Amino acid sequence: MRRVICATIAGSDPSGGAGLQTDLRVFTLLGAFGQTVITALTVQNSLGVKDWMAVPADMVKAQLEALFEDLPPMAIKTGMLANASIIKAIAEVLRDHLVPLVIDPVMLAKSGDPLLEEEAVSALISELFPLATVITPNLPEAEFILKEKITDVREALEKLKKLGPKAVIIKGGHRKDEKATDYLYDGRDIFTFSARRIEGKIGHGTGCTFSAAITVGLAKDLSLPEATKIAKDFVTLGLEAARLAPLGKGISPLDHLVHYDRLVEAPKILRELEEAAEFFCSHEVRPLIPEVQSNLAFALPLAKTHEEVAAFPGRIVGLGAGARPVGCPKFGASRHIANVVLAAMQFDPQRRAAMNIRFSEELLRKAKELGFSLGEFSRAEEPQDVKAKEGSTLAWGVTKVCKDLGFVPDFIADRGEVGKEPMIRILGKTPLEVVNKALKLL
Asked: What does DSSP assign to residue 254?
């Protein structure tokens, strides 16, 4: 197997929230063998940068030369470069080894502390920008480089492109828009990458994470837009996980390990679905099975797409007095039940499992007697633009119920309409929890 090798030329963050420690973590999680060229030692944590010391330029150069002598990287990123001497030393080596180069023009830490000597900025522009595949400044960094306030993003992209890089990304996290949008300009086209803005005292190491993820994509021969999309999604998920469980006392770093959790969780999710379905079908559950049959779903942590929700491709069908699942559970197997789970997770990320059962007033009455929470939506209230969009009714209905109640209930009733069978959906944290709720209705 051909291993992807990526190198980071950056400073060390002993807290692990940014710098080369973050870069290595991202490389590994995205399947690359990571290498480091250390440019500076910093004393920092989530509260800020307390001190830093640059590595001698000749030592930085020697580290980089050693990489190309033995295990040459397929793509390189730069982070904190500290001073002009280091920048010039790096440029000397890279002019002889033209590999994809991602420059994260690190000038300030998230806390606002300076990480680049002021006179080094001109060296960064003149020495390294012309060698770059892409530069990835955030809005304040782009304004610092251009020495002007940015009011027109396209104009700013064009000005930065004229400084020498093949492409430019301006990260939009500092803008006050509803969505966090990054802009990629390759000299011809502008590509935009948007994600829901995630508020909170989070974001230490965001730029390092983003540029490191792009580096892996380029090393894997992806196009720059493809690599940028992967990086955007990687950052967004890490920010969302950090918001739910922040690290440190200051500005929390991204929770990269949510990506590891999802890798580990995927086979467990499929196994738990199989076990829960087997347990459900070991009972006389035919009275719970609707005409369109049932399904049982379980989502990856912080899932956002149908492909991140597993279910049974052939559903769970009635058989005699019981039922049986058709096929083995697979991710992306059912958009309908996935829509229910994804909508519920917007209100409670722990409610990752769902099941549909037959609608009846008797089942609803029993659920209420057992102390379960109930919600209901009417398709008569569904807006026409939602109704016209295939497959959007369930997401709308679950969202409406959760908004009205202020929480995700155990059961959601849907009385259907002409051509649409009425249904009860059960929600829970795990498939077994959902199945147990259903079985209590028998």
From this structure: P
Helix intervals (H) in 376-442: 384-387, 393-405, 431-439
d(CA 74, CA 278): 48
Q: What is the mean pLDDT of residues 279-307?
A: 96
Determine the pLDDT at residue 277: 97
Q: At a CB cut-off of 8 Å and minimum separation 6, what does 255 contact?
A: 238, 241, 242, 245, 247
DSSP string covering 137-187, please?
-BHHHHHHHHTS--S-HHHHHHHHHTTS-S-EEEB-TTS-SSEEEEEEE-S
**Which pair of structure tokens corresponds to residue 240?**
């969302």
**Cβ-contact 17, 46 below 8 angstroms:** yes
DSSP string, 112-145: S-B-B-TTHHHHIIIIIGGG-SEE--BHHHHHHH
Report d(CA 174, CA 164) in Å as an integer.
Answer: 24
Q: How many CA atoms lie within 13 A of 249 on its CB side?
A: 4
Which range has the worst mean pLDDT, 116-130, 196-210, 261-275, 385-399?
A: 385-399
CA distance 226 to 413: 41
Q: How far apart are CA 254 and CA 29, in angstroms?
A: 13
